[in-house]
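Protein 1 of 2
SEQ + STRUCT:
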Amino acid sequence: MASHFHAVVWIDHRDARIFAFNAAAAEKLVIHAHLTQPHLHRKANSIGDGRAAPDPAYLDRVVQAIESAGEILITGPAGAKLELKQHIDKNWPEIARKIVGVESADHPTDGELLDHARRYFHAADRMRTQRG
């Protein structure tokens, strides 16, 4: 993606929407998981938790799309956002240092996601300038 300083990722087990942006412009990228089995929710009388294991190749493609960002916000429903964060922490420590937040977000529109990320980073930037 472009060389915008900020990036926001909204991720679930099917796809990831990524925006690299600044105050005036944004670029969007969508990465789809290649599911070999559908994502299932817990079922009674079944072995295991009924979920497909995280796909490392999918997570790696997401990480590669955000690796040039200076600061990253990860959002999404349920566990996918945490799986991405854990994958980055384990395999990409230089990128893990760029993650400034992990937040729950159900299914925002692209505009809602980008607006939220811009407000988030604006507030975070203001907090950092007050500390110094």
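Protein 2 of 2
SEQ + STRUCT:
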Amino acid sequence: MNLEVFKFGGASVKDAASIKNVANIIQHHASRPLLVVVSALGKTTNALENMLQAKIKNEDWKPFLIDLQQHHATILQQLNLPTNLLESLFIELEKKIEVVGKLQYDFHYDQIVSFGEMLSTSIVATYLNQRNNNTVLLDARTLIATDNNYRDVNILWKETEKQVTENVLPQLQNNKIVLTQGFIGSTKDGFSTTLGREGSDYSASIFSYCLDAELMTIWKDVNGVMNADPKQFSDAEVIPQLSYYEAIEMTFYGAKVIHPKTIKPLQNKHIQLMVRSFIDSKTEGTKIFETNLHISYPPVKVWKENQVLVSIQTRDFSFIGEKHLQKIFEVLATFRISMNVMQNGAISFSCCVDSNPRLEAALDVLHQEFKILTNENLHLATIRHYDEKTIADLTKGKEILVEQKSRHTIQFVLK
């Protein structure tokens, strides 16, 4: 079918001018079968999170809703779209926020935050059709089937493939541009779920996999995959091409250019991924593909803040063994705490994790059996393809608490 899948994030649809630009890009490529995945308008997810937090704390949440309505109304007006286009969605959102309670936070989170994508895609689809693009809007919650592990779901692949094939394929065959939401799916009971923050990349790769796409393109505000975050490092440069393996390694260590789960579905079917700029769509961007060729990479720098170093020690001075480690891993997994670095000693086990509201509860459980020490407000520096100059630059003026080094990667927990 020669299908291409596009993904546009929140920054690409943050205002009316941005939506017009996205429409121009889509229209330029509309001669081939096209499925387009769109995130919530920029900062909308944060606003919905703030609204949810206010409701749980019994604070006034309505100002957040009013601001959200006004922002979307302004965009509707600037795009000359019907002023009542989003009315039913906002009524439904208000009803759902009214019934939120303190229990089952993750469940309520997914029901509320998923509205961001529903709002944005209603605007983009209507605008595309206003410009005479033959566009159909499909609800991703009827396409992507998930379990009920809210906020971090697992995809039910067999059900998802069936739903995507039955609902999307006929529209593409009828020369429709298919527009749908990123980030969201639903359980078999019809409750909304989310795929994790920045999960729209993953959504696009799921659709690419199910439809045997030839190419997937992520449109971003940078010219491609860079060897460092340009907001943190002024010398960041574009990497023209990456292997699947290298892309997975970069995302695993925290590079934010694409969602960590994005690559696997693409690699499984050898689907090429492009990362391109929606600001300058003429630039070539970065190609991510399967290759056995040797690619020379510059040092890739990942800097993570708000890190916590946790030291877990046995109380009776016994060695940390497999049973102790099993207990530690089980507790951290239960509370969904991911370890960025881990290190084993004779009577202690240390790990560096992101600061997380669930961390305190996890450590309370572990404290029943172990002695726990923590060091907060730390930084984690990771360098792929390191050299001495990059190491010196990143660690200058910092105290190194933990260092781990392998053939291609070095990591420092810094104070």
